[in-house]
Amino acid sequence: xxxxxxxxxxxxxxxxxxxxxxxxVGVEGQLKLLNSRVLIxxxxxxxxxxxxxxxxxxxxxxxxxxxxxxxxxxxxxxxLHGRKDVGxxxxxxxxxxxxxxxxxxHLIPYSCRISEAxxxxxxxxxxxxxxxxxxxxxxxxxxxxxxxxxxxxSHAGILGMYGQTxxxxxxxxxxxxxxxxxxxxxxxxxxxxxAGVLGVVPGVLGAIQAAExxxxxxxxxxxxxGRLLTxxxxxxxxxxxxxxxxxxxxxxRTGADLQPSRNNGKEIGK
Amino acid sequence: MxxxxxxxxxxxxxxxxxxxxxxxxxxxxxxxxxxxxLRIVLKEEMAREMIHEGDTIEIIRMxxxx
Lengths: 270, 66
Hints:
heterodimer, A: 270 residues, alpha/beta, Rossmann fold, 8-stranded mixed β-sheet, 8 strands, 17% strand, globular, B: 66 residues, mainly beta, Ubiquitin-like (UB roll), two-stranded antiparallel ribbon, 1 helix
């Protein structure tokens, strides 16, 4: 957990006045957020939404990971990027957009693909991770590395007019691999390139991921640990699937030996 | 028999295996997670895991978009 130090400036008091009025946040919570570090992996639809809200609410340091460049077909959902950004690195485009909102945000760009070789080094310094990638290999890799490091993260996936999200706090509930096992065979599940995706779907899911990050950092409320939330935008139906609490996949079993014990979980005391 | 699939009650000729239920629903097993009575059914168990009267089944799609 981030340590609290410093105090709010007059501008910060005004800038975050609507946060501070919330009992769960207050001045102390706002200082916590300003001293927090969140990593967002993937600057597509989910990452666009999550980055905007995390930056706006005052998270002090945000790492952003993406190796891609902006394409015209990204713009109906990836709201960080504009027409003039087509061809630019997404990390650069995202940096320009978010600096308008938060000129003093400590933004750390990683213009690379997350991989076995770099994942641990990139993830380790952060308090919470937003998994916003667009492929199963990265989703499973991030899960495995976060579980091994004892790092809390939010998973989300989207397709068409459907999305899902769950929060993983290692040692406190099932991980992504506990639920889904292994990546599906190549081609078995269509990609958004093949089946499309409505922009509001990652917009809503990315905002939920940001909410989970904020709650984790503030140590308040009930996280989506041990339950998976799905959203069918067509039926306008949110559904929660309870997940078994005693599930332990191979990664969780080996990871548990390496983790420090944490206070965060499904039920967080005041 | 009556079972509950993703929160909806359904009548089904049974008992059936998880794999047979997925096939009848036109779902490829490798693309979903299945939970029976709050326990994840591993992919390798689907062919022999039986679904009985009153069971609660959750079928969760894998979606990889971001």
